[in-house]
Amino acid sequence: MTKKLLNRVKRGNRKAQKEFYDKYSVRMFKLVFRYVNNEADAGSIVNYGFFKIFSNLDKFIYKEERSLIVWMQKIIINEALGLLRQNTIFTDISEHEKESVISNVNENNLDLETYYYIIKNLPDDYRTVFNLHAVEGYSHKEISEKLDIKTSSSRVYLTRARKLLQEKLNKNGE
Amino acid sequence: MENNNIDKIFKDKVESLNRLPREVKWNKKIGWENYSKTFLNDKHMLKKRTVYVSSAAAIILILITIILFNTHNSTQYIIVENTTNKTKKITLPDDNGVWLNKNTKITYPSKIKGKECNIKIEGEAYFEINKKSCETYIISAQNALITVQDKSNFNIRAYTKEVNVDITVKTGIVKVGEKNNKEGLALLIKKDHYCSVHKSAKLVFSAVNQNENYLTWKTGKFVFNNTPVITITELLSEYYGKQVIVENEDIAYCLVTNSFYNIPLEEILNEIKNQLKLEIKNAGNKIILSGKSCYY
Question: What is the pLDDT of residues B133-182, one digit of tens each?
Fold first, then answer.
């Protein structure tokens, strides 16, 4: 199904593009909105991203839907990081913080949306690193290249993000 | 409780949220309407980018034309066209250097001085403005207008066949705008950033440059950093003027990390072949890569 749709999109068929957009845009918006603060930015990043996806689709060879989604997410995340880097200064942190062991995480049954917003409410730099590493699975080396910071700084941001998340989680669970 | 447990909790929860958060007003209908308004106002915009591959031996020739315009100040313009299949360096009248890729044409004034100097580019060129003899250099490349007021080194890729004009700044700073939209936003493009100007959508877009191979045409250096085979074959086809294609999709997204500097095509392909256990076939003027998937 997806493969047929993809071939129509590749040929520049508008109906197919719309169908494709309908199928994946919500997923992409949800992803972007985890990185940027406001809806307007998220909406335009998604659209820039889709434009790039459509323009570069002829370079993508379909194998399975999962790899298509991963490929699209990478494009969209790069768009989001482009904007974030214009507005946020990612600085290096020199202090040494050990990856402290976090205990007592209350995994209560909070609303799924609450988890989403807990991430969203982290400071820009913490949130970006946490999203990239913990959710999207980027390595510290990749993050350091994308944000132009040291790998050690990426680790510090992650540790701090985890601490904050844990606090929030415990607080929300009470 | 391990550290990455907290990662896992959030990852799982976020991934299982299969709708948009309630307060979000955006939806796919609104999104698509905006998309159509911004990007779908020209039916030719999604034409495939074709990589130019010269078939027969290219004519080795550089054309130089001097045109005398009968304007008030009668500025003389010089046109240099690189029709060879090698890159060429020319020197502007003010001693600044410009590298021209294959199939590139540059038009510049015979005297570079004063307030404004207009230069025109068709194709791909790398400017080394290391000395300022003119207050403002204005370079037009398709529908992009690049204004240079500081010493800067930058690359402009503006082939008629491609949908975007790409400007990548190596040092210094340039200003990029869209020609038909003078009131529109002109962006300052800093060192290590690139800017894309879309031809029909009149969009100017800038981000950090992540393409390590934008100057390969000039330097002969390829840097592959987890680069998919499909991207590599495109880069190689363009640089060596010989079509390199991927036969089966399984290998298209195999990743290669390596770098090559002024190395013949066959050696690069051999190295990749050994690394990924591929097969190489020569079929006339094409080189075909095939093999088994490298995933899982």
Answer: 999 999 999 999 999 999 999 999 999 988 889 999 999 999 998 887 76
Which of the listed residues B208, B228, B262 is the one where a domain comes to its end? B208
What ipTM, to 2 d.p.?
0.88
- CB B31 to CB A102 under 8 A? no
Owner of token pair 């074709």? B50
Question: Could you say which architecture CATH assigns to the domain A2-87?
Answer: Orthogonal Bundle (1.10)
Which CA distances in Å does B18 have to A20, A29, B171?
Answer: 17, 11, 45
Angle made by CA atoms B239, B241, B245, in degrees to the nearest 5: 90
Query: Is B11's Cβ below 8 Å from some Cβ in A?
Result: yes
Query: If you count DSSP H runs as helices and E runs as strands, how many of each does chain A have, helices first?
Result: 8, 0
Nearest to A118 by CA among A172, A159, A81: A172
Q: What are phi and psi of B11, to 5 degrees?
A: -60, -50
Distance to chain B for A166, nearest Cα, Å: 7
List B residues 46-105 in contact with A (Cβ-Cβ < 8 A): 46-49
**Alpha-carbon distance B112 to B101, whole Å?**
22
Break chain A into its structural domains and give their ranges: 2-87, 112-173
